[in-house]
Amino acid sequence: MGSAIWTASAANLSNWVHWSLGNTLFLEGIAVALTNLLLLRRFDYFRLIRNLLYILPFSYILQWFAEFFNYIGVPSLNIWWRVILDIIGLFGIAVAVSIYQRANLIMHPNDDFPYILRFRFMHGSSVWSQWTSYVPPILIVIISAIGAHRLVAVNFGTVYNVLTQGYLIGWSDQHIFPQLHHHLNYKK
Predict the structure, then answer these.
(1) Handedness of CA 40, 12, 161, 74 (dihedral sign)
(2) Using the 8-state DSSP alphabet, how is residue 177 labeled?
């Protein structure tokens, strides 16, 4: 039913260049981690190391889950079950991102990116920062789909993710562990 937009971009790039999804996710994560340092306007070794520590296992675990869901037959479920699973999964991702952005111990670079945008450039708007952070993966999807002559991993869930992730993160900030606050660790 479609992936979150960053995963969809990696899936399309992987399909185009014939790399494994895990390797593509890892390399995409490194590129975003370096972009984050440019946005911070300083080289933050600790932040880079934390980003890399997150993406190394995550990239390959995500590839395993994609294979696992195919193995157990999720793609062959009735469309309504797939939509429900997609919404539940993407809502869970938004809640998790909200919690771990506020804890700010270790983050995936793709979640650190809108976090930096949110508080450095978007006056705290989770919606605008998410939408802005989706420009690169949307461009990757378009370029890869044109190059491969095929669009993969884009469907209802991808559109739902792009349209709602920022709102759901903002909602979760206020309603899920509201005593947990953002700890900004950069200079404006």
Answers:
(1) negative
(2) S
Whether the CA torsion 16, 4, 118, 184 is positive or negative: it is negative
Q: How far apart are CA 180 and CA 183, in angstroms?
A: 9
pTM for the model stands at: 0.89
**Domain residue spans in the chain?**
5-175
Location of structure tokens 């809502």 = 91
155, 156, 158, 160: CA torsion to nearest 10: 170
90: buried, middle or exposed (CB in 10 Å: 19+, 13-18, 0-12)? buried
Name residue, tokens 């789909």. Answer: 145
Task: Please list, in sequence order, all residues whose beta carbon lies within 8 angstroms of the beta carbon of residue 39, skipping any fewer than 6 positions away.
Answer: 113, 116, 117, 120
Task: Provide the terminal-to-terminal Cα distance of the chain, rounded to the nearest Å.
Answer: 39
Token readout for 183 is 């700890």
**Is there a contact between 30 and 85 (Cβ–Cβ < 8 Å)?**
no
Helices 126-133 and 109-120 pack at an angle, to 10 degrees, of 130
Q: What is the pLDDT of residues 29-70, one digit of tens each?
A: 999 999 999 999 999 999 999 999 999 999 889 889 989 999
Query: Can you read off the two tokens belonging to residue 123?
Result: 């006056």
